[in-house]
Amino acid sequence: MSHMLRVAGIVEESIVDGPGIRFVVFTQGCRHNCVGCHNRHTHPLNGGELISIEDIIRRVGENPLLDGVTLSGGEPFEQAEALSRLAMALKKQGHNIITYTGYTYQHIVDNSDKMAGWLALLQYTDILIDGPFEIEKKNLNLRFRGSENQRIIDVQKTLLNKKIALIDWD
Ligand code: SF4
Q: For residue 38, which atom of ligand 1 is closest to its CA?
C-alpha cells in the first residue's frame, strides 16, 4: 500500500536546510500562523500536491551525494504518521533526519499519546529544530533557523537522558 504525503515542494539538493547536502521535503499545512512567516503558501491543509513516500524514498536513494534528509514545512507534525514511515525507511538507507517544527519539544512529548505518529516521528528524527518563528527574536546570523527561541536538539540523546541536549551550530 502506498502512503501519501501532501507537500508544498521538494528540493533535491539543498545546503541551507541543515549541514551538508540535503534532500528537503517541505510539507503542506501549518496552523501556527507565525507573524512574519515567509511560507504562507504552505499553510492551507489541503493545498500543495500529493506524492507517495515511496517516490521520495526512490529519489533519495538515487543520489549518492546526499548527507541527509530534512523534513520542513509547513508543519511536519501535521502529517506525522506518513512522515514517520518515510523517516524510518530513510534511516534504514543510512540517512540522518532533521525535522523542523513550530511546536516545542515538550509540547510534542506532552501530546504524543493523543496525536497519531508524533512519538514515532520524534523517535526517527536525529535533530529537531523546534519552536515557532518569533519575529521579535529574528536573527539573520543564526544558522539554519530564523529566530533565537528556536533550538537545535539532539533527539536521540534527549530521549535517552530525558533532558534536552542542545547542539551548537553557530
Ligand atoms: S511554523 Fe513555519 S510555516 Fe508555520 S507559520 Fe510558523 S514560520 Fe510559517
A: 8
